[in-house]
Amino acid sequence: MSTGTADTDETRVTADEQSDDHETEPESALETARRQLEHAAVHLDVDPGVIERLKHPTTVHRVAVPLERDDGSVEVFTGYRAQHDDVRGPYKGGLRFHPHVSEEECVGLSMWMTWKCAVMDLPFGGGKGGVVVDPKALSDGEKERLTRRFAEELRKFVGPKKDIPAPDMGTNSQTMAWFMDAYSMQEGETVPGVVTGKPPVVGGTEGREEAPGRSVAIVVREAAEYYDYDLDGLTVAVQGYGSVGANAARLLDEWGADVVSVSDTGGAVYDADGLDTHSIPSFSEEPNAVTGYAAETDGADLLDDGNDILTLDVDVLIPAAVGNVITADNAADVRANIVVEGANGPTTFAADEMLAERGVHVIPDILANAGGVTVSYFEWLQDINRRTWTLEQVQTELESEMLSAWNDVRQEVEARDITWRDAAYVVALGRIAEAKSVRGLWP
Ligand code: GLU
Asked: From the alpha carbon of 165, which atom of ligand 1 is closest?
């Protein structure tokens, strides 16, 4: 377990511990995703053949990515692109550069993207990919060459109507600009819609970077109202001060909540009166700044163990760092009444059941952090229509998409008396199954 910080949209779910034993933790993203699917499917009258198909990705592309290092030597990295399901539209999802990237992890994360896009009612399916590499060990030039060669290896499989990658862990808007350029040079035309999360000057959109954190904050606000908490003075702890955590924390702080604790890989800071979230640099602004803030600020203390942030007595806990942090080992100690998942897969299947039994409301990742892919959709719309939206337009549309998805999921929670995760799956699976049913199985 770690208090690590997600420096891009998304966070890591370790896959190397994958096991067939359902009682063994931590689980791989794929194992968790399949168990969640089975768990939710019982609430829906869906053809079992559809559920069976959804347990498997359509394709996983595995490519070798040779890189000439700065010293002239050649190293070969492995890259993947998992394409889970495209019944509702092109595959969509991030590309990560991380040493723990694996085929199973990409498949599990691509399944979550399928559900996420369906919960949000976006015309996309699910994809995810990455390169098994530590980007911190590469120079900028090496990162650029690696990205361009990876784009070339994936060129046949991606495109604005086929599969649209985006930034993820270890990648960012610059990576997307290189990817888009490499693809465009080979296609003989500028194709901004092949990826999202680009810098605005080359077809990116305003508001994309902050979008996952903003959607987490919107969901916290709605959940607080639903469970009769006043947003003013709501106590919140945020694990991970990367893009998702910092943006969520700062918005909630602006809206009157008391963000009493935040953490990064260096540790967790606590102030019962609420932290000044804007004066704590996010991970991309200054890595591991939380410890420095604690040392310099009266009333702000470092927790003995950074992981203690997960068990603080707060109204809302936002795990926004890495996957598999709330496990069977600590779920009984979680004291928050509401958990809003900023990271992908922060709660293991067993922990989820324990929290549900204890009456802790867990609002799942596929709803809470879906602002990222939703604003990616806005970016893609702008690219294919050659139009530019203002930041205000993006924020207004995101707010309305989030409220609509929240209400769809809430209705299932109320109608079926199920958890928020099962309800989000019910909404997503209902849409996917209906699309599969009307399209039919070919041939
Ligand atoms: N990586 C992000 C996620 O997990 C966004 C993907 C995208 O924008 O396509 O939702």
From this structure: 9
